From TrEMBL:
Residues passing through the membrane, by range: 21-45, 180-203, 223-256, 276-298
Family: Belongs to the ABC-4 integral membrane protein family. FtsX subfamily.
Lineage of source species: Bacteria, Bacillati, Actinomycetota, Actinomycetes, Micrococcales
InterPro entries cross-referenced by the UniProt entry: ABC3_permease_C, FtsX, FtsX_actino, FtsX_ECD
All residue ranges annotated as the FtsX extracellular domain in the record: 56-161
Coiled coil: none
GO cellular component, one term: plasma membrane
Name assigned to this protein: Cell division protein FtsX
Native species: Cellulomonas carbonis T26
Keyword Transcription: no
Subunit structure: Forms a membrane-associated complex with FtsE.
């Protein structure tokens, strides 16, 4: 009997404030979509870091025949300089930091160049002598790339020391800023959702003050009186969360997996399973919004 009464009260409240309920659902949907987008972006960033940082190499480019660098004043790197650099890389001082060392000769560099740019017209006139040898150093911990860079920067026979993180980190920075922007917009929208849910619950409580008074007179508890209002907000917020999860799933499935992954193939993108990872969080946030709004409102507007 009590359950039937509570369900009837919930239905009555939702019908009386239908437009406000729809507004709550939509605002919750938009706000949680931003929250979910921020979460998915962070998952994508972490996945890219795990994938790319493990493959980060330090490239030590040796002096070619003609170079304006002071360390190449003697011309092309000599065999003695090459042996000294190799011994340094394979020595005990760098052993804790270096996982593997690969030497790329001019011929190796030319072969890789041809494979990569075989179809480019401007690459047809390039010869092996125009390229330079290099050491490719795989690190035990990619975060410690500066150790190798500091050792070989400025050494005779070394033209330049480059770390692949210099290419990766600008993209990571852009994605991090996009995450912060999404999180900021989500915070604003969540505040709007709390205010709107609070207003909806207040209007529903005020429109039923007579029924609330009668329930007080017959000895109904505070929880029994307030429960229908709390469930109204929770239902509306949960519907908004469900719409947000559905929207994010469609976005990841059709925009990321079917379109973006086919257009830009060097990135390992997240898939729809990431949406299900954050879906419980979105539902918890939605219920939390309803709970906060209910606590703020019902203690005042259900008193008789």
């Amino acid at each position: 009997m009590r359950l039937q009464f509570i369900l009837s009260e919930i239905g009555l409240g939702l019908r009386r404030n239908l437009s406000m309920t729809v507004s709550v659902v939509l605002v919750t949907f938009v706000s949680l979509t931003f929250v979910g987008a921020a979460g998915l972006l962070q998952i994508q960033i972490d996945q890219m870091k795990d994938d790319w940082y493990d493959r980060v190499e330090v490239s030590i480019f040796l002096c070619p025949e003609q170079s304006e660098q002071p360390t190449c004043a003697g011309g092309e790197v000599t065999d003695e300089q090459l042996d000294a650099l190799r011994a340094e890389l394979e020595g005990p001082a760098l052993e804790p930091y270096v996982e593997q060392v690969y030497f790329e000769s001019k011929e190796d560099a030319f072969e890789a160049f041809q494979e990569r740019y075989a179809d480019e017209w401007w690459a047809q006139g390039v010869t092996a002598d125009q390229l330079q040898p290099s050491f490719r150093v795989a690190l035990v911990d990619p975060e410690q790339y500066e150790v190798v860079s500091d050792v070989f920067t400025g050494r005779q026979g070394v033209e330049d020391v480059r770390d692949q993180r210099q290419v990766i980190e600008p993209l990571i920075l852009v994605l991090n800023r996009a995450t912060l922007m999404s999180a900021g917009l989500a915070a604003v929208m969540l505040l709007a959702a709390v205010l709107l849910i609070t207003t909806t619950i207040r209007l529903s409580a005020m429109s039923r003050r007579r029924e609330t008074g009668i329930m007080r007179l017959v000895g109904a508890s505070n929880l029994f009186i307030q429960l229908p209002f709390m469930l109204e907000g929770a239902i509306a917020a949960t519907l908004g969360a469900a719409m947000a999860v559905a929207g994010l799933w469609f976005a990841v499935t059709y925009l990321v997996e079917d379109w973006l992954a086919q257009s830009v193939q060097f990135v390992d993108y997240i898939d729809a399973s990431a949406v299900w990872t954050i879906a419980p969080l979105l539902v918890v946030v939605a219920i939390g919004l309803a709970a906060i709004s209910s606590v703020v409102t019902l203690s005042r507007y259900t008193k008789v």
